[in-house]
Amino acid sequence: MHLANYLGYLHAAELHLAEAYRKVGEGHAAEADVFHTCNTLAKQCEAHAGMLEPFVDRYGEERPTEPDRLYHQLFDETRSGGLGLIRDLHDLYLMAHACDISWTMIGQAAQGARDRELLEVVDSCEAQTATQIKWLRTRMKQAAPQALLVAS
Questions:
Q1: pLDDT digits (tens, 9 = 90+) for 24-41
Q2: What angle separates helix 81-113 from helix 3-27, to the nearest 10 degrees?
Q3: Which residues contact residue 38 at a Cβ distance below 8 angstroms, ignoring those fewer than 6 apart?
Q4: Where are the domains of the chain?
Q5: DSSP states of 53-68 as a string?
Q6: Which CATH architecture describes the domain 3-149?
Q7: C-alpha distances out from residue 20 to 77, 107, 113, 143, Å
Q8: Is the pTM of this model over 0.85?
Q9: What does the alpha-carbon distance between residue 142 and residue 146 come to, in Å, rounded to a whole number?
Q10: Cβ-contact 49, 18 below 8 angstroms
């Protein structure tokens, strides 16, 4: 059974996404909405990772290296200015999508295993991840005209 592989992937990806949200929030603290929303979303990601614990106990957990590589490639440091903000949000968007598709695949496995408890967690966390993605897209759209058209 390879569910342990994706549980490990998602567990690490959620924790890395939480750390990335915090870095972006701190790196762009002058944007109050970014600072506060990123910190809220970081806590949400940590809660998602915590909700996986009973299923790690049940199915096991392997630790693939992909989440670590993705995080370290995207988040050595945050960028500055308007363009830096949209680039950092874009990187968060990529990481959030990695979590989103992992929730989807784990949800499919939960259906196959008829694991109602796991399916409930997936439904809740997948919905919150979708909301994170919507916020990231909206915030990038809001920042793009200024960042891309106005000289800094």
A1: 999 999 999 999 999 999
A2: 160
A3: 21, 22, 24, 25, 28, 92
A4: 3-149
A5: HHHHHHH-----SHHH
A6: Up-down Bundle (1.20)
A7: 10, 25, 32, 19
A8: yes
A9: 8
A10: yes
